[in-house]
Amino acid sequence: MASRGAYAKGVAKRDEILETALEVIAREGYRGASVKELAEAVGLSQAGLLHYFDSKDELFTAILRKRDEVDSRRFGDLDEKPSLDRMREGFVGIVRHNAEVPGLVQLFSRLAVEAGDPQHPAHDYFVERSAALRGTVADAVARRQQEGGIGDAVDPETIARIIQAVADGLQLQWLQDPTIDMAATVDAVFTLLAAPAAQSSGRDTP
Fold this sequence. Notes:
By secondary structure, the chain is mainly alpha-helical. The chain has one domain (2-196): Orthogonal Bundle (Tetracycline Repressor, domain 2), CATH 1.10.357.10. 72% of the residues lie in helices and 0% in strands. The longest helix has 27 residues, at 2-28. It starts with a helix and ends in a 5-residue tail after the last helix. The model is unreliable at 198-206 (pLDDT under 50). Residues 11-71 form the HTH tetR-type domain. Keywords: DNA-binding, Repressor, Transcription, Transcription regulation.
C-alpha cells in the first residue's frame, strides 16, 4: 500500500510540474523557462525536478504532451473522427490559442527541428503526433469527398499534409512576424476546400 501511495503521489507531482510548466512558459516564454525557473515554480531543486524526468529534453517533450492533452479538453478531441466542419473548428481554435502562448510555440518549433534526430527524446512524440493529426484530417476530408462536398483531384492524405504544412510553416513565420493572423490563414485553407467540387478540381469548367 505504501509503495502504491508513493507512486500515486509521484504521478500527481509530475502532473503538477507539467501544469505549472505550461503556465510558466506561456507567461515567461521559452527562453525564460530554464530548469531552474521551472523547479523554483514547483518548490523543488533542479535535481529534484529532474528526478521525475530523465533529462531536460524529456521534460520539454512531456510539457508538449501535456499541452496537447489540455488543448484536447478545451477544443475537443480531434482523434474521435469528427466531421470536417467540427475538425476545422477545433483545429483553427487551437491555432488561434497558440497566438496567445508564444513561449509554447517557440518550444514546439525548436523541439520539432531537434527531433529530426531519431535519438532525440521528442522524436517519437512528433512522428506519432503528426501521423495522428494527418489521419484525422484525411479521414474527415475523405468522408466529405464521398459526400461530394470536396473535389477528388487531390487525395485526402496529400490534403492533410498540406494543411499540416501550412499550420507548421505559419508558426515559424509568426515567430518572426507576430502581426500574421495564423488562425485566419489556416481557416482560409479550409474555405478553399469547401469550394464547389467542380471548381476545386478544375473539371467541367469552360
